[in-house]
Amino acid sequence: MRFTLFLIAFTLTVQECESTKDCKYKDGLFGRIDLTSVGLKNTPAFRNLPSTGQPDIYFYSYNPCYPFNEASCSDVAGCQITRSGNQSFALASHTSVSWSVTPTGNVSLIYDFNGRMLTVNLMCSTELDQLEIYGEYELKKYNMTLFSRCACWNGC
Question: Residues of the signal sequence (predicted)?
């Protein structure tokens, strides 16, 4: 019996990348994303928005780059507040974020904070900055999409 051995060589290229919390990301393949001009200081850029995906009893606030305080949420990137204003939950901290970049260049910010996970998908847009809230799609898992020219590679 005769055996033939084939060797296949794989080359794995690791792209140089660096990030500054949830503000800036630099990738050796696609370029850079800078959300600094989207976030506001001391107040959320997107405040008390309802969910457009899963109808629920909450409003959501989000701010990239700079922490804010709202209701009982302190120094956060994201906050969930009941429409009555009786309860609030911190969804995200700027110190608990990681960047996710697909091979095709789609980008998400993933915040893992106090047992809650918030995913903010970045979508390149030439319109005014907009945040679409999909709400709590699974227990303590939340999804939003940020539309901005600053979400474009090399956009800001």
Answer: 1-19
